[in-house]
Amino acid sequence: MGADRRYAYGAAAGLLGDLLLGDPRRGHPVAAFGRAAGAVERVLWRDHRGWGALHTGVCAGAAVALGTLAERAVHRSPAAGVALTAAATWAVVGGTSLAREARAVGHALESGDLPAARARLPHLCGRDPQALDADGIARAVVESVAENTSDAVVGALVWGAVAGVPGLLGFRAVNTLDAMVGHRSPRHLRFGWASARLDDVAGWPGARLTAVLAAAAGPDPRGALRAWKADAHRHPSPNAGPVEASFAGALGLRLGGTLSYGGRVEHRPVLNGGSGRAVRVTDIDRAVRLSRRVGLLALGVTVAARLLVKGRGK
Fold it and tell me: What is the greatest pairwise CA distance in the chain?
C-alpha cells in the first residue's frame, strides 16, 4: 500500500472518528500542546517580536518534528501508517465539538435561557457575551461556526494532504499558537506577531477552499460567491473574511457589524448586507449542517488532490 493510500484511508478514518466520538473529555493532545507552549512562553517571553518568533519556531517546529519522526517509525507497516494518520486526523480535527458547542448555545436560546447561552458562548469564541442579546449571540455563533470550519477542519485536511502527519500536527500547532498569543493584548502585541502572521499564511489555502465549498454545498451558491467577492476583502482577517462572507451569502444572512472582545469594541463591516437578513436562532443549526457538508467535501477534495498529484509525479 502506497503512502498516498495510507493517508487517504487514515484521514477518512480519523474524520469518521471525530464524527462518531468527538474530542476526548480529558487528555486532549491539543490541550497538552497548549500547556507545553504555555510553559515555553513563560521561559521565552519578552516584549519583542524576535523572541515571539523564537517561541513560534520552537513550538510549531516541535510539532512538525514529532509528526515526521512518527511517520518514519511506522513507514514499513501500512496498517500502522493508516492508524497513525487516523489518530492524528482525529486529534487535530474538531468539527464535532464545534457543532456540539454551537447547538448547545442554540438550545439554550431556544428555551429562552439567555444566561445559559451567555455562559456557553466563550466555549466557541472570545466575545463578551454579557453585551449580547439573543440575536447577537446567534450571530456570534454562526460567525464562529463559519470561521472554525476552516480553522478546525478544512485547514488541517489541506495541510495533511500536502505533508501528511507533520502537516496535520504543524497546522494545528500554528492555529493553537495564534489562539494563545496571536491576539492584540498588551502582553502579546509584539510577542504574538509571528504566530499571528504564520497562522494567516497557513490558513490561507484552507480558508479559500472552505469558501468555495460553502458556496457549492449551501442553498444559494450565487449568493455565496457574490458576498465573497463584494465583502470578504473588507473584513480585518484575510482568512475569516472569505469564509464568513461565503457562509453569509450561502445562508442568506447578514453577518459582521459591531462586536466586543475583552472589553474592546470593534466595528466590523457588514457581510452580505445588501441581500441578507439578520441572524435568527434557527440559523445556528443551518450553519452547523453547512459546516458538516463542507468538512466532508473537504476530505474528498483534499484526498483526491493528493492521489492525483502524487500519481502524476510517478
Answer: 59
CA distance 157 to 260: 31
Q: Which of 199, 210, 202 is nearest to 163 (CA)?
A: 202
Grouping H, G, I as helix, E, B as strand and the rest as coil, residue 277 is strand
How far is residue 11's CA from residue 23's CA, in Å, rounded to a whole number?
16
**Cell (9 digits) for 129:** 457575551
pLDDT in tens, 241-261: 999 999 999 999 999 987 766
Distance from C-alpha of 148 to C-alpha of 240, rounded to nearest angstrom:
9
* DSSP character at residue 255: B
Radius of gyration over every alpha carbon of the chain, rounded to an integer in angstroms: 19
pTM > 0.90: yes or no: yes
Q: How far apart are CA 193 and CA 262, in angstroms?
A: 18
Q: Among candidates 169, 177, 176, which has minimal Cα distance to 194?
A: 177
Burial of 308 per CB tally in 10 Å (0-12, 13-18, 19+): exposed
260: enclosing H helix or E strand: strand 258-261
pLDDT of residue 257: 84
